[in-house]
Amino acid sequence: MFKLEFLKLRKKTRSWLGPILVFWLIMLAYPLTVEFLRDKLEIGFFSVLWIAILISMMLATEGIFSEDYNDGSLEQTLIKNPSFSIIIVTKIFTHWLLIGLPISILSFVFSLGTTEDLSLSLSILPLAIISSYIFLNLFVLGNALSLNKGSVLGALVTMPLALPVLIVLGKGLIAIQLDINYQSFIFLLLGSLSIIIVAIPIVVSYVIKAHLE
Amino acid sequence: MIKKFIHQFASPKTYLYQVSRFYKYIFYFSLIIYIISIIWGLFFTPEDFVQGNSYRIIYLHVPASFLSQTLYLAMAISSITYLIWRVKLAAYLIIAIAPIGAMTTFIALISGSIWGIPTWGTWWQWDARITSTLILFIMYLGLISLHNSFSNHEKADKLLSWLVIVGAVNIPIIKKSVDWWSTLHQSASITLTDKPSIDPVMLYPLIGSIVGFFGLVICLVLLSSKYQILHREKNKSWVKDYV
Amino acid sequence: MNKNPLIVAQNIGYKINENKLFHNISFDIKHGEALHIKGRNGSGKSTLIRIILGITEPVKGTLENKSTKEICYLGHKNALKTYLTLDDNINLMQLTNCDMLKSYLDKLELNKYRDVTVSNLSFGQQKKLALLRVFLNNSDLIILDEPFVGLDDGAHTVLTSFLNNELDKNKSLVFTSHIPCNINSKILEIPK
Asked: TM spans, by residue (chain B) (predicted)?
């Protein structure tokens, strides 16, 4: 099942390469827009980084269900598999693997390039990995809710859910820089991720069933 | 048992007739209370030592902020009721409450901004409570636009209920996370937003205004749910009799 | 021969936004029986099929499905990925019963397109590819919504004889079709 989902996403280059390129572009554009800050690039860097992750994850979920919905595959899956939420978990994981993970690694690279601080960048990596997975889950929910109504509505609907994560990320970063209880933020994010990873697919499966009805 | 009970007492028809019976009393009662508390609060309480007269906006601001969250809670309860017991009335209530929740949240935000100008010197501050209220406002807007985008009412109801429930989980999280966040930016305004140990002279009209405002908003919810029922069940024969 | 009904529907009704689509429809399907659902456009044939599939819940009435295996279904939508090749699509169908794959690819004249992206196939060819789900099914209940649309005479014959053959094997069939076909079936007329 995982292999098939992977195959589907991999062959659709636009869907996975697009968000990564958008992320890349935002991160490249950042230093251009603040040239006069040359020595103090770090000041706004991480805000841009978190927002870039958020945006690219939003783009990553763009067609996650609508394609299967429009060509009738969702109905076939629903008939075949009583455990619909497992399929959704697989789908989300596949998307994260092909989009979220590369973006997290890119975050590390860009962070290293900007701050030239290896330990700081290494602490950014887990934050990026976890937060990209959380964002992906949240936007999947939004996308499922606004299935066949366009992803803008879904993004609007789930944005309030993503804002607290951004706030925690901002705080976590300060914790890294001041070197205080950084781990508690990782645990906090991991905790929310572990809830989200279970709850979102279940809710999404109900939402999609409501759509197919 | 519970299911039967709910279905009997929550039929849109019974609800509508009960609402028509009690609506007037609730409306006049809360209107009188609100007017009395406002007049009391505006003219018969002393000026605040620090803030002067500007604090008097609390008689609008505090009830509105209080209701913005209470209404969301009401929506969440309706959503659970709808998803578990398939009570239609609960679905009508959710979408009836949403615009009113958005309205009270908007009032809370605007009155807060107006209050902020003389006291904080700025109309906007990225502080814990303001930010969480703003997020709540966006959530209300999202809920309304989600519901409006589906022509199949039942589908819209189900999706809306799920979103309301997920969003309800988010409310305490929002509150918590923004609280942590703003404590780091040691902002002086925090002490202002925390309820000061308010003098009884100001407290009684405040409580009165909350009760009155609450009653008035309930009246609005009743009206809007009445409209929803009539709109959604317009083909039923009893609705034609009612109208 | 097992003559217990596979599906029993009692007084099924459905409505969208308080507009009644149909009501009080009752029928049963036994093993080895075919049911042809007829009705005008918009009378709710597809909705009824979705109710039988268990995707949609009827507003009124009950539907019992005693089938133990997964239902084999093909609707208006082909459930094909147009950006993948024919072979990849067959993989995605997760067919359990692949012995006959080669012979059906030959019969449907699809064999030479196995490495072609599906978007480059014609409408009829795509339909034939989608029908592989039906030909290689592993089910006791086949549900088809307008299966004959877009098929040429050859494929039409292949499908009809296949379905008749399945009925002889004691499988059940539910279908809708505006195109006349030679399948011995009960008829359910949805009144408007």
From this structure: 25-44, 64-85, 92-117, 129-147, 159-175, 202-223
Q: Are the C-beta atoms of C32 and C1 separated by less than 8 Å? A: yes
**Residue B236 belongs to some domain of the structure:** yes
CA atoms of A184 and B198, how far apart (whole Å): 37
- Sheet containing C34-38: order of strands: C72-74, C141-145, C172-176, C34-38, C186-189
DSSP 3-state of C11: strand
What is d(CA C40, CA C38) in angstroms, rounded to the nearest whole number?
7
Q: Does B181 touch chain A (CB under 8 A)?
A: yes
Q: How many CA atoms lie within 13 A of A54 on its CB side?
A: 19
B142 in contact with chain A, both atoms CB, cutoff 8 A:
yes
Task: Walk across the sheet containing C5-16 and list its strands.
Answer: C19-30, C5-16, C60-65
Give B236's contacts in chain C (Cβ within 8 Å). 18
Q: Which amino acid is at B185?
A: H
C73 and chain A in contact, CB less than 8 A: yes
pLDDT in tens, chain B (243 residues): 666 666 666 788 888 888 888 899 999 999 999 999 988 888 887 777 677 777 788 888 889 988 998 999 999 999 999 999 888 899 999 999 999 999 999 999 999 888 888 877 777 777 777 888 898 999 999 999 999 988 888 889 999 999 999 999 878 877 777 676 655 443 433 344 454 556 677 778 888 999 999 999 999 999 999 999 998 888 788 888 887
**In whole angstroms, how far apart are CA A44 and each of A40, A115, B36, B127, B181?**
8, 11, 52, 20, 17
**Rounded CA separation B240/C9 (Å):** 33
The answer to whether residue B8 is domain-embedded is: no
> Is B205 domain-assigned?
yes
In a domain, B6, yes or no: no
What residue ranges define each of the domains in chain C, with the CATH number in brackets? 5-189 (3.40.50.300)
Alpha-carbon span C118 to C83, nearest angstrom: 6
Q: What is the DSSP letter of A35?
A: G
B154: chain A residues, CB-CB within 8 Å: 213
Q: What is the ipTM of this complex?
A: 0.88
Query: Which of A141, A159, A213 lies closest to B166 in CB terms?
Result: A141
Mutation pick from C14, C16, C17 vs chain B, by most beta carbons of B within 10 Å, is C17
Per the DSSP assignment, residues forming a β-bridge with B48 are B52
